[in-house]
Amino acid sequence: MIQLAIDLAFVLEKAILIGGIISVSLLVAMYSTWAERKVAGFMQDRLGPNRAGPFGLFQPLADGLKLFMKEEIIPNASNKFLFILGPGLAMMTAMMTSAVIPWGKQIEIFGRTVDLQIADINIGILYIFAVLSMGVYGIMIGGWASNNKFSLLAALRGASQMISYELAMGLSIIALLMLTGSLSLKTIVELQSASGGWWNIAYQPLGFLIFIVCAFAECNRTPFDLPEAENELNFGYHQEYSSMKLGFYLFAEYINMFMSSVLMATLYFGGYDIPFVNDASLIESMGMNLVAVLQGLSLFLKAAFFIFVFMWVRWTIPRFRYDQLMHLGWKVMIPLALFNMLITAIVVLIRENGWPF
After folding, report:
1. What sections of the sequence does the record tag as coiled-coil (predicted)?
2. Rounded average pLDDT over 115-143
3. Contact 96/114 with Cβ under 8 angstroms?
4. Of 322, 330, 312, 332, nearest to 261 (Cα)?
5. The pTM is what?
6. For the CA atoms of the chain, what is the radius of gyration?
7. DSSP for 91-137?
8. What is the mean pLDDT of residues 85-97?
């Protein structure tokens, strides 16, 4: 009975944590649409949304209600099962990434110590890449099932773009793994937050640059938004979608942007580590739970900065041509990532064995 109670408590803890992370992710995605238009308004010397509520804060709620209330249209010539599966798969893969991200260290509830991470698996980065590789299926299935040539062309663009830039992203991560020696995101964060440790951005500036460029391509964000090039392909791979099926595709993009920002903060900027502060002494003076809240806030502030960078780039840089996008991916990013990996390997070899001469 005691073991059963412990198991039930563990399941309940994880269920609450999963529900909380999903709710926060949806809230961030919803208000990212508001922030995007506010940033665009500021850069274009206009106000942005300002009608629905104070400062337009109710605009995302109005947009969500509009999508819920709109008529659901499924084309007669479409594959109906796959047409419905596509946006659901895109949304599911966008949310699955959060399972291995450490959102804070630990909290104490009713005498139990709870990790603020859904699953601390020792191959966390491999899990993330596996989920990312599945994300392209949501786009491909939606574009093909629509039975629309523009949707299919956009889906093909999205698939080839993601495959091209995943290679460079993976190579940049291999260089990082050479330094950390672990695939666990929790271990990577702990190494950066250790006393006397440096954030990985100090050791891998080129790797981070490659990673963030590839993250833009993976999220289909400008200047890599070729799958949604309205002036070429009408509305892109979700041309035939309406109501909340369209909403799922749009939400999945913003959730991917949020998860990419959190992942960049975790891998290169210390994750939940509070800068210039010794966490152990802070826990002694303030308590574990309050420090966990501050750590979560630190991670969210870092992620918010990267979300702003995504938006800043969108309203600053024009879209690439498709040949330019492929040239950058195969002939620039992959050679740079290989060069970065080679230099990192040499540095690690020298650090561990000393100079060979």
Report:
1. none
2. 86
3. no
4. 312
5. 0.91
6. 22
7. HHHHHHGGGG---SSEEEETTEEEES-S---TTHHHHHHHHHHHHHH
8. 89
